Amino acid sequence: MAWSNSKVFAATLLDCLGNTTAIDLDADAVKAALFDSTITPDNTVTSANTALGAGVWASGQKSNGGWSSGGLAIGTPTWTRSTNVNTYDGADVANGSAATLTDVQGVLVYDDPITTPVADQGICYNYLGGANAVTSGTLTVVWNASGIFTLTAT
Amino acid sequence: MRGGVLLDVPPKHWGCPSCSWRHVTRLAAVHAPMHACPGAGGMNVFGTPAEQLAAVHHVVRERDDYVGSERVQLAPETGRPVMAVETHYADGRIDAAVYAPTAVAEVGA
After folding, report:
1. Do the beta carbons of residue B77 and residue B40 sit within 8 Å?
2. Distance, in angstroms, between A18 CA and closest chain B CA?
3. What is the 3-state secondary structure (H, E, C) of A21-50?
4. Which run of H or E residues covers position A153?
5. Would you call B103 an interface residue with chain A, using a CB distance cutoff of 8 Å?
6. Mean pLDDT, chain A, as a whole number?
7. Angstrom distance (rounded) from CA A11 to CA A110
8. Do A56 and A44 touch, CB atoms closer than 8 A?
9. What are the residue boundaries of the structural domains of chain B, listed by start?
10. Tell me: the pLDDT tens digits for A7-51?
11. CB-based contacts of A62, cutoff 8 Å, min separation 6
């Protein structure tokens, strides 16, 4: 198995709607961390296993130079609604100082400041579609115009 | 000599190795403007400092994997799923703009 899709963690949605976690999407310092092809993300894992450093996210992280371990903050986050679609979006994420990275396959989006009941709880993951690399350069994650993730009430 | 505030930030000239786009910015912060590049299928790509244009080229990389139900980013002019646009410099450096799909969730009865 490997990366195959981009999903929102079901357990995190439950925790947010059930007031189990105090994640505040458009106020918290949400971060994006890079991962390689050795992992197989699953959006049906427990809350604890969505977190950076837990479950599949315990290995395979890619960091170098300006792409520091733990990833980089997503600037100007927004959480908006249009009819039945809620959209989470933010500024593109790039390293400020040079990095050399290989086999960057996907991104874990997680809440960095949250510490309880799950620290660094994952929100979603985005599959980049293959192995990406930079050499002594800048890797910029350009979010889709449709947002980082959407939550549709059907 | 005393320190002071720079009132008039010098212009920075930008261009694109894949199209005729040219741009000038006056920002003190680290930045790189983007533009929809016809040479990259209409994808939004970063500008290159004008002084480096002669020794730079872009490589457009289509998605390696199946699109399936993924909400990927398509090149507006070709409709093809683009994974990244790389900027290759003469000294071996490579930058990349990687285009993330939108993650999705649905709730309902």
Report:
1. no
2. 14
3. CCCCCCCCCEEEEEECCCCCCCCCCCCHHH
4. strand A149-153
5. yes
6. 96
7. 13
8. no
9. 12-98
10. 999 999 999 999 999 999 999 999 999 999 999 999 999 999 999
11. A34, A35, A36, A101, A102, A103, A104
Chain B nearest CA to A45, separation (Å): 15
Q: In B1-109, which ranges are E strands?
A: 12-15, 22-25, 34-37, 43-46, 48-49, 56-62, 82-89, 94-99, 103-107
- Chain A residues with CB under 8 Å of B107 CB are 13, 151-154
> Helix (H, G, I), strand (E, B), or coil: what is residue B108?
coil
Put simply, the answer to whether B96 touches A137 (Cβ < 8 Å) is: yes
C-alpha A76/C-alpha A53 separation (Å) is: 25
Q: Is the peptide bond before A41 cis (omega within 30 degrees of 0)?
A: no
Tokens of A22: 């105090």
HSE-CB for B42 with a 13 A CA cutoff: 9
The pTM (predicted TM-score) of the whole model is: 0.93
The predicted model gives A112-137 an average pLDDT of 96
